[in-house]
Each structure stands twice: as structure tokens, then as C-alpha cells.
Amino acid sequence: MIKMRTIVDVHTHVNLFPYNKDREEVIKRAVEAGIKMICVGIDAETSKSAVVLAEKYPKDIWATVGCHPHCAGEKGKFNTEIFRKLAEHPKVVAMGECGFDYFRNLSGKKDQENVFAEQIKLAGELKKPLMIHCRPSKGADDAYEDALNLISNFEFPSPKISHFYAGSLAMAKKLLNQGFYFTFGGVITFSRSYNEIIKFLPIENIMLETDAPYVAPEPYRGKRNEPVYIVEVLKKMAEIKNLEYDKILEITTQNAERIFNIK
Question: Which CATH fold topology does 7-260 show?
């Protein structure tokens, strides 16, 4: 029997409503393809559902719990004690996604900052990695700059992951110097604007994601994304980095296992 090679999708949302009709089939397709998943919460409700899936599929799914910046201004969306209890679950491997989103500004900046700060503190207290969502204003790095400044106010030795990195090369260098890791998804299969950054970053600081159900890669663009499509991201990453497919698979999987302490 040929041993199946594992790929880790470090940021997926199979807990969200677009999968309500066929969630089991989506997960089954991923599992049969050798894909392990980190299911990401964006508020208390979806964080709970991520934990439920991680319990149901203990060998294939892990969870993160967090409050997305879009939800930061919604009353009752963030309660420190609720999130602390969720984050203490052994299947929870990170806090987040959390951070700043200045592209849509669905929550006020102060609300985003307050909720992000609480999650940084919780991650530090529980020694969990931080899954960071930063989406800057168009043509700027402001969300990343503010995230770095905020994190610097805390003693935070755990890994910091910049999910779906969308900043400049200069900002990537700054984050790398601060020990950040970076994830990339389907957008790299149809946009060349990430190539320079991906070529610059060490593969040891890169992990793969789908951010499903969003941003499906080519040749599935325009369709609902799902974890099994991460193979297309892996193929494109190998092309951009000029490394063999198996080498990218091996190193990014090792990165995920190490950073999130999963096996």
C-alpha cells in the first residue's frame, strides 16, 4: 500500500453556513485526499462549531477560536471568559482569527483594537499561537503596522501567523524579522502580485491554506472553495518557489505540525 502524503490546510471554515447542506461530504473528500484541516472560528458561535468538528474528526480536524475584526463591534460577540473556556479545549491549537480589517471597516478601529488585545492576552496566557487577520487600507500597510504595535505591548512568545498575507514586500520583511509565519491560499493561482513576496520568504516560514469557502483557486475560481482544492495552492507554490511539489508538501506540513503542535 502506498502511504498517503499529508497536506495541512491551516485555515479553513468548514464550520460556516455555506457547508450546511453537504459538510460531511466536503470533509470526506478532504480526508480521503490526505488533507488535515484547522477549522477557524470568527465569533463565539463559529468557534464552538469548530471545536465540535474537531471533536468529531479527532485525527483530521483541529480548531481555532477567535473573534474576527468584522465582528468586534457587535455587542456580545466577544466575551473573554467564553473564549478562554473554548481555548482551553485540547483540540484548540490557536487563538483567532483576530486582528485589524481597514479595507471594509465593518467595526470601529477602537472596537477592533480592544477585541484583538483581549485575544493576544488570552493566547499569551494559554501559550497558543495567534492566527492574525490583517487587511490594510488599499495601497497601505496600516493594519499590519497597528498589529505589530499592539502585539509589542504584550509579552508574547508564541508563534504569530499572518493569515492570507496581503501587505507589501517591505512589510513582509518587517514581520519576518519579528518571527512571523505566513499563509497563502487560492489567490496566488490567479494573481501574480504575491510572487515577489513568496519568492522572498523562506519556505520554513510559509504554510498553505484555502480560507474555504472563500477565494477558490484556479481552475475552480468563482465556485465555493473547499479544503480539497488546496492541492492547487501547493502546485502553484512549488512553481513560484521553483521547488519540487513533494518538497513544498513536506516542509509546509512540517511547519504546520510544529507551529500548531499537531500530529
Answer: TIM Barrel (3.20.20)
Span 146-188, pLDDT tens digits: 999 999 999 899 999 999 999 999 999 999 999 999 999 999 9
- Residue 249: exposed, middle, or buried by beta-carbon count in 10 A (0-12, 13-18, 19+)? buried
**Torsion sign (Cα): 118, 124, 130, 133:** positive
Of the chain, the end-to-end C-alpha distance in Å amounts to 21
Is the model's pTM score more than 0.90? yes
Rounded (to 5) percent helix, strand, coil in the chain: 45, 15, 35
- DSSP E strands in the chain: the ranges are 7-12, 35-40, 61-65, 92-101, 130-135, 160-163, 180-184, 206-208
Cβ contact 208:184 at 8 Å: yes
pLDDT digits (tens, 9 = 90+) for 84-116: 999 999 999 999 999 999 999 899 999 999 999
H or E element that contains 198? helix 195-200
